[in-house]
Amino acid sequence: MKAKLKDKIPVLLMIFLLVNLGFSQSKTNDLKTDNPLKTRLDSVVHKKVLSYYEDNRAVGLSMVILQNGKKHYYNYGETQFGSGILPTKKTIYELGSITKTFTGILLAQAVLDKKINLDDDIRKYLPGEFPNLEYKGTPIRVVDLSNHTGRITRVFKNLWQREAYDSLNPYTSYTKKLLYEGLHEMKLDSLVGKTSSYSNMGVGLLGVILEDVYKVPYFNLVNKYVLSPLKMNNTITDNNVSSVPSRDLAMPHNAKKQVTPRWDSGELFAIGSLESNTEDMIKYVVGNISNATPAIALSHKLTYGSLNEGMGLNWYIHKTNKGSLLFGHNGGAGGSRSTLQFFPELNSGFVLLTNSLANRNILEKEISELLDDKK
């Protein structure tokens, strides 16, 4: 009797695997897409995106690839789970922390306009006294806010300790006043400018400083110095989303594919307030590759580390195993994920925007490796 059961186990296992394979294929066969599947690139992208959709949290995805100067758009899934609406190159997604690269360009512009020096003590631009913002006589400099070496706490406790805190939309109604209070309460624990440790509050403060020196709101600065020169007409802030038809919005989703709120950055616009689409963002990639403005070019200059692994002004810089120079930044909000990378020497890059918490790390790595080709 036991021998017969033992003989049946491989058969049962095979049936189980076939059923699950069929279910997986059914899911991907039903996946909406505008990928024409005409070229080798189309087929390679499709295969890699199907692997991404094996993550059950995946909802919608829009990608634009610049390969040797030629643009390729791909869209998959839905703008909202169950809607049946396929995203397009005009669909608006949350950019999350990719916004910080725009902030870096604004800082570069402020340097060129002689509004700011990168080596300035940040206390020059703060209201009141902040004796705590130095370590053994070494102050936090403006550049340290941009490359995350300022040792400023990633998120201040008063973000979540306040009565208005919303775990689904954590920065909403967070003010400059609260930011300054958090700065007063923090204590530096090591020398600044030596180690990069990611800080939303540091970049948030940088954005406030930029608004103050120009006496102009953050988005007005972005529009004047980045969006207008690059003709990015569809990029908006999180507080302007109501002006976009719902059909053109990629709704964020939680792990259960339920719609979750778009994040509101409060008064810390510089950390993640921008929203855009692949049609606009490829203009941003091209503008960065071509150094379309002096400020864009300056934002790429190394301020920390080395070209092998370092930072410019809010840009991560990396040299690949093939020796190619790579610039990039990722983003994330409560129900969205984003990736931007470009190879200036190869005239190539890509932007990946998603409206779910599905893990896109493997996909972005594969697309990056696909473009890293000097042939």
UniProtKB/TrEMBL annotation:
Xref: Pfam families: Beta-lactamase
InterPro entries (UniProt xref): AmpC-like, Beta-lactam-related, Beta-lactam/transpept-like
Residues annotated as domain Beta-lactamase-related: 54-358
Gene3D superfamilies, sorted: DD-peptidase/beta-lactamase superfamily
Record-given protein name: Beta-lactamase-related domain-containing protein
Species assigned in the record: Flavobacterium hydatis (Cytophaga aquatilis)
Taxonomy of the source species: Bacteria, Pseudomonadati, Bacteroidota, Flavobacteriia, Flavobacteriales
